[in-house]
Amino acid sequence: MVLDTPEEQAFNDIVFIAAQTCDVPVALISLLDTERQRFKARVGLDVTETPINQSVCQIDIDQPTVLEIADLTKDARTRDNPLVTGDRAYRYYAGAPLKLRSGEVVGRLCVIDTHARTEGLGEDQIMLLSALARQASDHLDLRRIARSSDRLAELQTALVQVGERIRDSAEVTTMTREASAIVGQVLAVTRAGFGLVDDDVTHVDVEPDWTAQGVASIAGRHRFDDYGAIRDHLMRGEPLVIPDVLTDERTRDAPAAMRALGIGALVNMPVRQKGRTVAVLIVNAAARRIWLPEELTFLRSVADRLEAGVARLRAEQQQDMLNGEISHRLKNMLSMVQAIASQTLRDVPDRAPVESFERRLVALSAAHDVLLQTSWADADLRVVADAVVEAVGFGDRLHMERPPVSLGSRPALSFSLVMHELMTNACKYGALCREGGHVDVDWSVETVSGEPQLVVHWRERGGPPVVAPTRRGFGSKLVRLGLVRTGGVELRYEPDGFEAELRASVQQFAQA
């Protein structure tokens, strides 16, 4: 709407022509609001607006034809009007409706005389006044369309910003507060917030909200019935849109609670799940406000995005709790396995196999911890390797060069055991058993016969002279099973250090 926009020459020309055509001293383009009429253009009048109760243009506003009152002092609708009884002493009025393409009548193009006209305007004058009103309506439509396009672009930019804040937020409170700040600023309101609704839509728990400077927060629990008849709309899942809490039928009987919070107009945009309202996006303005359709569409989109973001964070929190429980139980189970093994094997004179078995359990536990952090979805190869190194030690003497590589859950466990055996062997017989020895590990993806393969290189340097083993124990068998237990392993006992090359199909490596 162009109610409060500056004067424009196109509208000034229209009222000038209307005054000349109808031979009157006053011509106005009057735009109507619920509390006032604003003059977009005027001739012969020194004010830009008057209270709505002084408006003759509001009379029978939906009438499609020209409203003509020959003598304002003799018409019951106008004889007590201050514009008639006061110093201006208006006597004659004719007004053609300003009807937009949407069908909405927003005011009138009117002409006023200080003398009564018992015969009124001529037929040609009525036709010209109507034609000028249609021209003014077209101008209003064009300006509203232009402003609407600019507003839509502005709201779309704000919606993108809301999406970014929701995506980047790790806490519900942060998410709702930052999204509410964007909403409050782009709509130029006094308060914006997001609240969760209880099962019977009786109370709302408002998260920390955004407020304009000097405006109090409403974060906390509120009962809907304390603020008027606003609960039924939310129960039905309908937006609650109130332009004026003092006049709206749902709040006018008891507006004190709203006014105590500085609320003059509001929108409560419900969020629905499985047929019921579960949350609400709250927007407050301090004074009466007409909420535009594009603003309501924007708020609907923000509400949907916020609820999806809150649901995501809650699901992640629940998954973290579940993972913690699984991790706790798994560690207890592995500890019990270790205890059972220790008791069962306590009389075995050779302790080396027992200790090796216990270390393998530790490596398996480390790999499980990594997978639990990703909810048993893909894990990164480096993260699994780091977990094994941390469990064994010597991290300062092992250097890894690597690109990110995604592992399925089973290959992650298999790789952790292979990595543990290589680390254990290096500590017992290889580079890590001598001061100054070190290990280099790197991996890359190579294409072999048109198929991408992951290649892991293990190189030891600075250890004792390398001697190939004369027999193969269980650890050696684990290493030779390879990254996904399908082989693809080459072991080299070079004079300057042991080396291993392990290959596996990238497709196999990524499978769960």
Provide tags for this entry.
alpha+beta; seven-stranded antiparallel β-sheet; six-stranded antiparallel β-sheet
Structure description:
The protein is an alpha+beta fold. It is built from twelve helices and 20 strands. Strands 7, 8, 9, 10, 11, 12 and 13 form a seven-stranded antiparallel β-sheet that branches. The longest helix is centred in the middle third of the chain and has 52 residues, at about 295-345. It starts with 8 loop residues before the first helix and ends with a helix. The model has no long low-confidence stretch (mean pLDDT about 85).
Runs in which pLDDT lies below 50 for 5 or more consecutive residues are none
Query: What integer is the average pLDDT?
Result: 83
* Beta fraction: 15-25%
Write down how many β-strands occur, each being a DSSP E stretch of 2 or more residues. Answer: 20
Main sheet characteristics: 7 strands, antiparallel
- Cα(first) to Cα(last) distance is 58 Å
- Rounded radius of gyration (Å): 39 Å
The number of helical elements comes to: 12
Note the overall shape: elongated
Helix and strand composition category: alpha+beta
